[in-house]
C-alpha cells in the first residue's frame, strides 16, 4: 500500500509519518499526510492511486498518566476584610 511508496503506472502514493503523539500521557492521535501523486502536471483523482486510501490518523499511547496533586492559588482580593 501507500506506506511502501507503491508505483502504479505514472501514479505514486506517498505518505509522511507523524512521529509525535498528540498527548504526553494516555491515549492520543498520530497524524500523517496521504497524497496521491502523478508524474504528469494534471492532478490525479483518488481513484488513480488504486486501492483503499491509507489512514491519515491512528491512535497512539503517550504512556501511563501519573497522578499529580498540587496547590493552586488564585489572585489576592483587592478589598480589606469585611468589605
TrEMBL record:
Q: Which domain of life is it from?
A: Eukaryota
Q: Which InterPro entries match?
A: TSP1_rpt, TSP1_rpt_sf
Spell out the Gene3D superfamilies in the cross-references: Thrombospondin type-1 (TSP1) repeat (2.20.100.10)
Name by which UniProt lists this protein = ADAMTS-like protein 4
> Source species, please?
Acipenser ruthenus
Amino acid at each position: 500500500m501507500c506506506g511502501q511508496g507503491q508505483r502504479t503506472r505514472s501514479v505514486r502514493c506517498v505518505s509522511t509519518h507523524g512521529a509525535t503523539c498528540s498527548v504526553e500521557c494516555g491515549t492520543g492521535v498520530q497524524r500523517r499526510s496521504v497524497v496521491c501523486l502523478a508524474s504528469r502536471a494534471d492532478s490525479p483523482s483518488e481513484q488513480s492511486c488504486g486501492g483503499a486510501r491509507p489512514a491519515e490518523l491512528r491512535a497512539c499511547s503517550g504512556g501511563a498518566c501519573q497522578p499529580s496533586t498540587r496547590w493552586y492559588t488564585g489572585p489576592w482580593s483587592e478589598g480589606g476584610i469585611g468589605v
